[in-house]
């Protein structure tokens, strides 16, 4: 695939990947802003309000008719975080022009429609429609309140909230319930206009069109975008060491039949010059797959938990281990997880373990090229990390990772916090 990166407007960047391997095209427009407790909920609701309609297509039914005309194209709201950057916007998928009947084309129309929704939302008296705002606000509140229903994800969320309580990363990507309840259409309109003028914007395209054509079409579609002084002061606070000298322990009790442990770590000095390939391999060896030490030893051999996995967040410089356990196995499971990390620190990784981890990591990276959404996510994270790297390049680097590389990462890692979700006497088994 040919990759071109180009600035279309002040602070508006296009990453265009030309490829004829897909039957669909992919276009995303993402506004970047600092994750903040006061504004996260407003940011999270904006794409959903914009998706309700525009000045020219004032409701979802009219919009649906237009998307159907464009051979069943789709435009969806999207809210994510990368490190401590909140990423909000719209993502479109559509039949690639090279797969349509001769003389047919939809990319330009889809690009214009995305710009229309983004720049000319449905308003009354210059303000976002109160009905649309209130409706999407209630849906946002439902999503926020519903997070507790997935206990595995909820436990991770609680660990990150408390482990990073002095940092922006403690703020959930959708914001908090209190902040969501205070969303008002007048204040939201002002905030939306500020984002359009000042937020850095990342546009991603993947399809068969050449970069110059894509650039021309998008530049025309966004020509009405008013830009002011761009707020480039967004980024991530990466802490090398634990917040306190001793590991902090947090506990909740709920009516569950299975306990949850989430152990949080800082990646430490290895974040001075992060080796992305080595970090991927380390995570695969430790807890990132079915050949990992956590899966093979803690789950399968010792039967101490129902699941056990590790996740490395390079953008924030942290790692967490998540596992589900019987209540009487909390201490044993935690001790064995720590023992497996210590084993890596001592270099106790077999050639078979290292080979399996490298094979898994390389396969995952090569698979990115087969999924447009994964490609979009990969390039967004790479851009925010300040990297210019292709998935294939990173996959090739995986093969060069040595045992000593992952040992050094393991020795750098510092334990910070542990979260326990325990059961109460009133166990109803209602959990995920």
Number of spatially distinct domains: 2
Average pLDDT figure: 95
CATH superfamily of the largest domain: Metalloenzyme, LuxS/M16 peptidase-like
Distance between the termini: 40 Å
What's the architecture of the largest domain in CATH terms? Answer: 2-Layer Sandwich
Cα-atom Rg, whole angstroms? 23 Å
Q: Which geometry do the CA atoms define?
A: globular
Number of helices: 15
Strand order of the largest sheet: 1-2-8-3-5-4
Secondary structure tally: strands: 13
Output the structural class: alpha+beta
Biggest sheet statistics: 6 strands, mixed
Which stretches of 5+ consecutive residues score pLDDT under 50? 426-432
Describe this structure in words.
By secondary structure, the chain is of the alpha+beta class. Helix content is 41%, strand content 22%. It folds into 2 domains: 2-221, Metalloenzyme, LuxS/M16 peptidase-like (Cytochrome Bc1 Complex, Chain A, domain 1, 2-Layer Sandwich), CATH 3.30.830; 248-423, Cytochrome Bc1 Complex, Chain A, domain 1 (2-Layer Sandwich). A hairpin with a 2-residue loop joins strand 1 and strand 2. The two termini are 40 Å apart. The relative contact order is 0.16.
